[in-house]
Amino acid sequence: MERLYTEQLQVGYGERPIVQDLTITIPDKQVTTIIGSNGCGKSTLLKAMTRIIPHQEGSIVLDGQLIAKENTKALARKMAILPQTPESTPGLTVGELVSYGRFPYQKGFGRLTKKDIEMINWALEVTHTESFRHHPVDALSGGQRQRVWIAMALAQETEMIFLDEPTTYLDMAHQLEVLELLEKLNKEQGTTIVMVLHDLNQAARFANHIIALKDGQLIKSGSCEEVITHDVLAKVFQIDAVIGQDPRTNKPMCITYNLLKGAAKHDQKAIPLHGVRSVSS
């Protein structure tokens, strides 16, 4: 059974539609990346699917139930979301922030149970953030802070984690650190990961499934090989892309590109780049 999907979804702000007539499925226990140009509705879709914002038309279904009618705490036990620029209270420690992930399970005065403490310790351990448990979050580096926020999501003990541009403002090493952590969580814990990424090669490298949007509508969804193609990228980004193959992962990668407007059409069948093999468009 498909756990999470949308049907003819429409989301907007006021009278301005952002996501229009969108029908997609999120594969369970896989890594899905959402790609598209700025303003195409990627973040809006993420927020709607996690019920941060309401949708106007259509439906979002999780485990056979409309999420619009799901109990808030019950929903928070199934999915966690990390926004694009999460912020914490100044002076809040890492341990305190991660403990907030246990909110959906707390009752009464909200005291931490033995299970809560076990989950917090596990989340700190798996994200390698235990060593700065007592450090203020705002004193950490960008990569460390991102791992701490992921730890909070893990402490929430959900089977799905949604992340809106988790590599924004991070250098190349810290980007890989965060993406490899998410990949590890997916492979070892079976966590369903859904994230918005701007870097096409990172999207292809770490995803099992890609959703490409333009102007709030679905252009293509499927495997990396089905989505990272010359024709799809031309429709989504208006670029004339040269697609090759990553020599380490064998997945498609965008080697170079020109703006499609006024750009000459190039032969995509042969790309002599240090043995990198071309993927035909």
UniProtKB/TrEMBL annotation:
Transmembrane segments: none annotated. PROSITE patterns: ABC_TRANSPORTER_1, ABC_TRANSPORTER_2. Gene3D superfamilies: P-loop containing nucleotide triphosphate hydrolases. It is found in: Cell membrane. The keyword Secreted does not apply. Keywords: ATP-binding, Cell membrane, Ion transport, Iron, Iron transport, Membrane, Nucleotide-binding, Transport. GO terms for biological process: iron ion transport. InterPro entries: AAA+_ATPase, ABC_transporter-like_ATP-bd, ABC_transporter-like_CS, P-loop_NTPase, Siderophore_ABC-ATPase. Residues 4-240 form the ABC transporter domain. Pfam families: ABC_tran. This is Iron-dicitrate ABC transporter ATP-binding protein. The lineage of its organism: Bacteria, Bacillati, Bacillota, Bacilli, Bacillales.
